[in-house]
Amino acid sequence: GAATSKTLAVEDKLDADFRKKTDAMKKKGSKLDNALEVANDTYVDVNIHAAENTKKLDKLTTLPTCCVESADRLNDMREYFEARGVFAPAMIDATIKKLKAFNDSNLAERLKENPEEVKSLVKEYFHCG
Predict the structure, then answer these.
(1) Which of 28, 44, 45, 94 is in the most buried spot, having the most CB atoms within 10 Å?
(2) What angle do CA 74, 80, 84 make, to 5 degrees?
(3) For residues 82 and 92, is the Cβ–Cβ distance under 8 A?
(4) Is 74 exposed, middle or buried (0-12, 13-18, 19+ CB in 10 A)?
């Protein structure tokens, strides 16, 4: 209905704003004072899943395992993005709301025993290109 059309229009505008901001970020480059240190700490030149490389794996920050965790991580980092003008507060709020709507806490645990659900989710949400 009308509410859905309005929601889609807002999401399209947010997506366009996001593309504009990320393009601007690419042009400006990194402004981290410790960029070389971050690069050295996060560079991986070994098989991190091999037993002899567990120290390297333990030093790396892990990615969120679901959309709800991603929303929480974004909320934790929002001050960084807002202070630098990377994303507007409304865009962050909308993204957090959209991510939390998936209600997928403990997704990784649930999927361990359900390969058919994995296939279904990959088919629905995994897009390349």
Answers:
(1) 94
(2) 125
(3) yes
(4) middle
Question: Helix/strand/coil (H, E, C) string of the chain?
Answer: CHHHHHHHHHHHHHHHHHHHHHHHHHHHCCCCCCHHHHHHHHCCCCCCCCHHHHHHHHHCCCCCCCHHHHHHHHHHHHHHHHHCCCCCHHHHHHHHHHHHCCCCCCHHHHHHCCHHHHHHHHHHHCCCC
The amino acid occupying position 55 is K
On whether the pTM is more than 0.70, the answer is no
pLDDT by position in tens, the chain (length 129):
655 566 566 566 666 666 666 665 555 455 667 878 878 888 888 898 899 989 888 888 888 988 999 999 999 999 988 988 889 999 999 999 999 999 999 888 888 888 898 899 888 888 775
